[in-house]
Amino acid sequence: MAQSFQRNLVRDVDRATATLGQPGSRLGSCGYEDRQKRSTGKGRPGRWVILGLLVLGLVLTVPSGTRAHDIPADVLVQVLVKPTGQTLRLLVRVPLFAMQDVRFPQIGPGYLNIAEADSELADAAHLWIANEFELYEDGVPLTGQQLVAVRASIPSDQAFSTYDRAVAHVTGPPLSDDTEIFWQQAMLDAMFEYPIRSDQSDFSIDPTLARLGLRTVTVLRFVLPGDTVRAFEYRGNPGLVRLDPRWHQAAMRFVTLGFEHILDGIDHLLFLACLVIPFRRFRPLVAIVTSFTVAHSVTLIASAFNFAPDALWFPPLVETMIAMSIVYMALENILGVRLKRRWLITFGFGLVHGFGFSFALRETLQFAGDHLLTSLLSFNVGVELGQLLVIAVLVPMLSVLFRFAVAERAGTILVSALVAHTAWHWMSERGSQLMQFQFQPRVPVFDLALLASAMRWGMLVLIIVLLVWLMLLVFPQMEMEEDGDVAARVKPEA
Fold it and tell me: Is residue 66 part of a domain?
């Protein structure tokens, strides 16, 4: 129907245009009187108005764009990078079906015409691969990219399992012309080369392959000069990736990640709000925030070193407990709280939040290189910077609210009740997800592995007890000075 309307509209435009030059036509009369009428706002619309409306209607009925193929749902890309001497090689394997709008030659019922596919394969490599990688040497973009080799491969080919096999495969003989493979199942293998100053330089890459599919997963392996392989796996566009990061580069990346994570995590922000609501003075907040920081740092580092359970039910359990911690803190604000009890309870809940922080690092620690501990500490620094920013905003905001809008006690109850209401819904939803798991207790086998695990957990418990003891030594004097005053302000009125 739309095409028929377009044809009729074009025909009408042609007829109208043909009548413009006719002396007796009303559209063609463009004399002094018509011009004068138009200048005074009288008379009928002129020919250009009519033509404009016709053309506008034509434009609106034409589709804005077309695609030869739909964007595929899941795409897996394999990438190998290795600097050697004064040359850096980039090998990429991409499924043909991910390269939209490229019409590969076919024969029969959709088989790839391998004998005539070379030019299309090269075009696809330039169009969909070459421009999606930005490589840097010591922070300077690499130029002089050259497409050295390109070929089609069958999906069962395992040449990209190692760098040497991939190079030999891409530069080796192509598939036989009589190979029968549907073009949607074929893979495109390409090798690019870049001139570099030295293979000992600091290399980084900024890939933008997300447009290949709705969910693009890239497995990237960087082969260091000593043949050490550093593997990465990411979804979409990861941004700038340091292939062999220095310690300060890893630190900056994870400081930024920690800062962004605390600001993006609404549950952590509400927990901080519960801590700040009754304590809006610097000295009481030092004990509370310090206990939270120490606690979540312990479990975060422990989880990174595989102290945490790897069961599927563990993440939903932690998320449920995080929501529960918010509910508890909010209710305690309503009922009344004392400083000593608050920082101890905050320490306990901080252990739970640390496991929650670790979940955000599971896919990101691969970018730490050899600097795992540095990256973990840097992530904690970023989290603390985010917490300080949140506290710096919340304290004056709550002070203004309680001074000019609502009484302190009433405001504490109101805000805490709103937080508790929100967290209660989270706890219910996350608890429902947790109950979907079937917990089947297993009798432990008393062997060396169990003994090693028990020793590790015992060491973790010992560290936690030691930290609590140290904080009890640090905070008592502060409690004697501050606790009575704080409790007087937040205790429910008789």
Answer: no
